[in-house]
Amino acid sequence: MDGKRGGRSPGTRNRRTEALMALAEEGETPCGFALRLMRDDTQDPDVRMHAAKIAAPYVHPKPQPEPRIVSFDLPGKIDGAEGLLSVHDALLRATAIGDIALEDAKDISAMLETHRRLVETTDLEQRLVRLEAEQAKGTAQ
């Protein structure tokens, strides 16, 4: 015997695909289809459970986690290298003894890095203004 006999021709859709295409042409959404199957008492319980799993993300959005609140003591002023070093030291100690989770410590450390760059930018701006003022004074004399 040469070749296969019977079966679908290549490119022919199966019954399930044909049924889904017919539903789509009628305007039924996949979620609506899954909900209808889920509610159909004549369907096999496994089919109904599978339909519920498909529909669940559309009907019940995934809950967002509650934001964590982290607190620890800060020095009075954090406007220079010493202040930032002091805060980072406190953060490392709190993380080391388990008062602050590592992920929270990473987030706080990133905030401290942003603060450091802001302090640095402000300091550079003030120094530049003073330098320009001194140069302007020197050329005026």
- The proportion of residues in beta strands is under 5%
Give the tally of structural domains: 2
Mean pLDDT: 84
Number of strands: 0
Rounded to an integer in angstroms, the radius of gyration calculated over CA atoms is 33 Å
- Stretches with pLDDT under 50, minimum 5 residues: none
Q: Could you state the order of secondary-structure elements as H and E? A: HHHHH
Helix content: 55-70%
Profile the largest sheet: none
- C-alpha geometry: elongated
How far is the N terminus from the C terminus? 110 Å
Annotation field: number of helices:
5
Report what the structure shows:
The chain is mainly α and 141 residues long. It folds into 2 domains: 15-59, no CATH class; 81-140. Helix content is 65%, strand content 0%. The protein contains 5 helices and no strands. α2 packs across α3 (45-59) and α4 (81-96) runs antiparallel to α5 (102-140). The longest helix has 39 residues, at 102-140. The radius of gyration is 33 Å and the shape is elongated. It starts with 14 loop residues before the first helix and ends with a helix.
